[in-house]
Amino acid sequence: MNDNRPVVAVVGRPNVGKSTIFNxxxxxxxxxxxxxxxxxxxxxxxxxxxxxxxxxxxxxxxxEPESEDIILSQMRNQAMLAMDMxxxxxxxxxxxxxxxAADKEISQLxxxxxxxxxxxxxxxxxxxxxxxxxxxxxxxxGTPFAISGAxxxxxxxxxxxxxxxxxxxxxTEYDEDxxxxxxxxxxxxxxxxxxxxxxxxxxxxxxxxxGTTRDAIDTYLEKNDKKFLLIDxxxxxxxxxxxxxxxxxxxxxxxxxxxxxDVVLIVIDALEGVTEQDTKxxxxxxxxxxxxxxxxNKWDLIEKDNKTMGNYTKEIKEKFPFMMYAxxxxxxxxxxxRINKILEMVEYVASEHSxxxxxxxxxDVIGEAVMLNQPPSDKGKRLKIYYGSQTDIKPPKITLFxxxxxxxxxxxxxxxxxxxxxxxxxxxxxxKFEYREKNRK
Length: 441
Fold this sequence. Notes:
This protein has helices spanning 18-26, 70-85, 101-112, 155-164, 191-199, 245-260, 276-287, 308-319, 339-353, 359-372, 410-424, and strands at residues 7-11, 44-50, 53-59, 88-94, 117-122, 145-146, 178-185, 217-223, 226-232, 263-269, 291-297, 328-330, 377-378, 381-382, 385-392, 397-402, 432-437. 32% of the residues lie in helices and 22% in strands. Helix 10 crosses helix 11 (410-424). The chain folds into three domains: 7-164, P-loop containing nucleotide triphosphate hydrolases (Rossmann fold), CATH 3.40.50; 178-353, P-loop containing nucleotide triphosphate hydrolases (Rossmann fold); 359-437, K homology (KH) domain (GMP Synthetase, Chain A, domain 3, 2-Layer Sandwich), CATH 3.30.300.20. It is elongated. GTP 1 binds at residues 12-19, 59-63, 122-125.
């Protein structure tokens, strides 16, 4: 994690409105918000800006101090880890429900951290309910902040107080050079295990229960002077299997993770092979113009001969004909095989994704391609490409100035694209094309 960025953890027992507050601060819906205690199982990260100050906000699963349930106890461990990482802790309590024994126990945990704790009494939706905050003075955490997360009341004052409590010497400026990586795939394909191996610590709950990682979790990592934001996503399930609204949110979250990533890792279970969902995620990533890498996990469980990898590669290419550009890595999270290659590949395809080529070099390649293979014609009229220019990155976009858009053909565009790739690479990223008719007088 970027240790120089202030970290704020939102903690409290289940269903007090932590995720609602988190989403308001983050400015978008990131956490799952649902009236089911324990829905937010893992820590979830977001970048927040207030008065030109940037900090990392962590939402946590609700703390239930005495629970022995496997998931609830892991949620408690995650919350403790978040509190350990945090510079400021927001302790959220429910102003409607009043103070509980669990609130008292959590307040004792928080006092031991010796960190600034801001007591937030949520669900104070109008002035008449303001008296509800006085009971919470008993927790010994100073003056409670009365807010309504749902109605956005009191949030500005709360943000002022948060920023006021940052230790001196921390970097609150936004870091632009972070490579954002979404780790996607079906439940139990091994996404969280891969992330844990990359990080070298249990940052994400790993449990044999399919779908344990319900939401997208952001983890910062600095390695070899490079900064990464690793987004572990809930596994996409088939739509027919989505019975709970929670699962529906998870599908949306996975798509949202792809949307904000630079690089998408499509994790495929080597034993199960390519599924409909893998195709769907890959299609979304391709359409969104993200850099992509296929990660074939559990490779240690496959019986091999000298053709196994070649055959598997061929199958991937056949299943994803629109993504011939995407490299394939065969790994095992269990044995650590090639796990160290993942970030190297991420860094490489991210650089290809943001690569720029000069207009003169590009036109040399286009000119040669046109000489070797004439553009298509229709009713005696032939497509003319006057010149091309790269007009964007992430993904690379090539604008071709031509005589008539009606004469363009996908097969000729693919031919031009192949020639561009032969000369400039662009491995791991799609290339977008735009046509502009050049007005001749």
